[in-house]
Amino acid sequence: MNITTISSRDFNQGVSAAKRAANDGPVFITDRGRPAHVLLSFEDYQRLTKQRRNIADALAMPGIADIEFDPPPATIDTRPADFS
């Protein structure tokens, strides 16, 4: 798998070339030198979206550490057991 990196300007001027490159692997499109978008073939997209089927796989995905997640603490109310 080849990874291609092109600027937004080059992408706008050569969409066909970017689509051809996406057949060989992901194409990173940069904006001011920083990755902004990724172009994938449809087959690669399907493969990526179908492999994340459970929570353990989703939590192990790259970039998960960059996601902020602060859920509120769970409140569990208790009540006495009725043994009658």
Can you offer a commentary on this structure?
The chain is of the alpha+beta class and 84 residues long. It has a domain at 4-55: YefM-like fold, CATH 3.40.1620. It has four helices and three strands. It has helices spanning 8-13, 15-22, 42-50, 55-59; strands spanning 4-7, 27-31, 34-39. The chain has a three-stranded mixed beta sheet with strand order 1-2-3. Strand 2 (27-31) and strand 3 (34-39) form a beta hairpin. The longest helix has 9 residues, at 42-50. The radius of gyration is 22 Å and the shape is elongated. It starts with a strand and ends in a 25-residue tail after the last helix. The mean pLDDT is 85.
Mean pLDDT rating: 85
Shape: elongated
Tally of individual helices: 4
CATH class of the domain at 4-55: Alpha Beta
CATH superfamily of the domain at 4-55: YefM-like domain
Q: Which blocks of ≥5 consecutive residues have pLDDT under 50?
A: none
Query: What is the beta-strand fraction?
Result: 15-25%
Question: Based on the structure given, which CATH architecture of the domain at 4-55 is correct?
Answer: 3-Layer(aba) Sandwich
Total E-strand runs:
3
Order of helices and strands: EHHEEHH
CATH topology of the domain at 4-55: YefM-like fold
Category from helices, strands and their pairing: alpha+beta
Q: What is the rounded Rg?
A: 22 Å
Distance between the termini: 67 Å
- Numbering strands along the chain, what is their spatial order in the largest sheet? 1-2-3
- Please bin the fraction of helical residues: 25-40%
Largest sheet: 3 strands, mixed
Family: Belongs to the phD/YefM antitoxin family.
Function: Antitoxin component of a type II toxin-antitoxin (TA) system.
Protein name: Antitoxin
Organism: Duganella zoogloeoides
